Amino acid sequence: MFRLIYNIVFPFVFVLASPYYLWRIWKRGSVTKAFGERLGIYSDELVSRLASLKQPVWIHAVSVGEMMLASVLVRELREKQPQLDIVITTTTVTGRQVGQKLVDEHLVLMYNPADLYFTVKRAFSVINPCLLILMEQEIWPNYVWEAANREVPVWLLNARLSDRSYARFRKFKKWLRPVLGKLSLVVAQDEEDVQRLANAGFPAHAIFNVGSMKFDVALLASVDGNLADRLRMTLGWQNNRVLLAGSTFAGEERIFLELFSELKKQHPDLRLLLAPRHFERSGEVEDLCREFGVNMVRQSTLKLGESLASSPEVLLSDMTGVLRSLFDLGTLNFVGKSLCGKGGQNFIEAARAGKPVIVGPNTQNFSRLAALFVRQHGLIQVKDTAELRVVVNDLLNSPASCEKYGETAKRVFEENLGAGKKSAGMILQFLEKTD
After folding, report:
1. CATH number for position 296
2. Does 318 map to a domain?
3. Quick one: which H or E segment has residue 234?
4. Do residue 182 and residue 44 come from a single domain?
């Protein structure tokens, strides 16, 4: 009954919502010949390319975050079985851009089909998968039903439920059970998620905990190991300690400029590095630095290897993709959108650097990861700016505590690596059994 109702109602919802999503796609300049893939309309070239694959593993990664998880999975699968055929589908343009580097003769990247009955049926026909893998929470009823009709197992990897999702799944548990009950395997991120998923209607017998693949994503991201040293030399910061505020949200730069102005009286060797989450805000942050009267330089204006005439007090990082390398420069690393804004940013890459990691009270997007690190003293979570001031000052006054927090952060990070390898091993074991 639910399947019938869904396939009557969803097309109307899809049509009503289409103008908004079409506008967003057009605004981003991403209306291309590949757009038809979202409706199950495939070019002859793509159909031919898919036909050359032999019952591939189909991985659905909705956007950038999930595509990074898929990248970890593909890397681990390729290590053991280089010629394994894989199809990855994604929803967003940015997800497709990230996934493009994975494409080779054994991997096809395409847009996922909208969850319409005939669209999904067409996608399954041209892909002809032996296994469908959904990343995190991306569960669409027609995908699951069509897979069941074709006896294709459906796995949910790196599964998690936020507080909001958990409440929704429990509320509609009765309606969702016919869909969730068809999942063959659910790989959760931790024991709490195992319990949540079972309570929310996922098949309890099929849920297993292998850890979070987000740690492996941090390891996957390349780090320029020399950038920190070259910046120190260029800036004249060889003998300075650095307070780094990364992925900052509006309002947090002011907090750190106020904190820096106060602390540098006690710690004259202290320097400040600001790295806004959105580099487009760099002009706004530069104006703020002028307001505080600090000597500031933008990272994009530096010629690495050439020392500046005078050493600046503040470095403004206005470049994308470099923050993970800048964490090595920090003596203390703060990860933003956690004092101002809500949800927080991923702090795992900061933990990888082996320096003390500080966050504010708002880590809702990473609540259980934050709890894991805090419990083992690998993360310092402050409740407000007053506590931030005390914590930073105490750490600057105690190099031994600083070193201990950094070592612990790195240890917790390293101890939690390997979920990608375990998940890939489960996939390869399944494929061996079905050969």
Report:
1. 3.40.50.2000
2. yes
3. helix 227-235
4. yes
Q: What element of type H or E holds 356? A: none
25 found inside a domain: no
**Inter-CA distances, 169 with 166, 183, 200, Å:** 5, 15, 5
Show the low-confidence residues of the chain (pLDDT under 70): 1, 20-22, 24-33
Question: Is residue 18 situated within a structural domain?
Answer: no
- For residue 284, which of 260, 253, 245 has the smallest C-alpha distance? 253
Q: For residue 357, what are the β-bridge partners? A: 333
Domain range for 140? 32-211+418-434
Distance CA(324)–CA(241), nearest Å, equals 18
pLDDT of residue 223: 74
For residues 433 and 427, give the distance between their C-alpha atoms in angstroms, rounded to a whole number: 10
Q: Which two tokens stand for residue 289?
A: 């630095």
The residue with tokens 């409740």 is 383
β strands within 189-238, DSSP E: 207-209
Domain identity same for 410 and 422: no
- Work out whether strand 207-209 and strand 241-248 pair parallel, antiparallel, or are unpaired: unpaired
- Cα separation, 300 vs 433, in Å, equals 53
Candidate list 37, 66, 136, 313, residue with the active-site label: 66
pLDDT at 327: 96
Relative to beta strand 131-135, strand 207-209 is unpaired
pLDDT score recorded for residue 111: 94
Residue 138 is a catalytic residue = no
Structure-token pair, residue 259: 């904190």
Chain center to CA of 265: 38
Q: Residue 247's closest CA among 159, 327, 163? A: 327
Q: How far apart are CA 296 and CA 35, in angstroms?
A: 45
**pLDDT number for residue 9:** 81
